Amino acid sequence: MVSGQVHVQADRDVCIGAGMCVLTAGAVFDQDDDGLVVVLAENPGDGDADAARQAVANCPSGALSLDERAPADL
Ligand code: SF4
């Protein structure tokens, strides 16, 4: 099966700076000086996509969202 691409977004107005995303997917998310999330990789590759999914699921504030894009949609 060919995997689709993952697209992640972060709402910095909702982020509470808990840092869970950075611990879970440090290649995809970072935090700025105020502790708010910064997306490093909006379209993480296969190696980081699972970590990104996990980070989105675990974000305590619901600031993160993720679209699964099938190859046909690209
Ligand atoms: S896990 Fe959620 S609340 Fe915590 S820093 Fe990341 S986006 Fe912000």
Task: Give structural attributes.
single chain; 74 residues; Alpha-Beta Plaits; two-stranded antiparallel ribbon; globular
Mean pLDDT: 92
Spatial ordering of strands, largest sheet: 1-4
Total beta strands: 4
Report the CATH C-level class: Alpha Beta
- Percent range for β-strand residues: 15-25%
What is the string of helix and strand elements?
A: EHEEHE
Low-pLDDT ranges? none
Shape-level CATH architecture: 2-Layer Sandwich
Mass-distribution shape = globular
Q: What's the number of helices?
A: 2
Helix/strand-derived category reads alpha+beta
Could you give the distance between the termini?
16 Å
- Which distinct ligands sit in these coordinates? iron/sulfur cluster
Q: Main β-sheet: number of strands, strand sense, barrel status? A: 2 strands, antiparallel
Per the CATH scheme, the topology name is Alpha-Beta Plaits
Helix share, percent: 10-25%
The whole-angstrom Rg is 12 Å
**What is the domain total for the residues?**
1
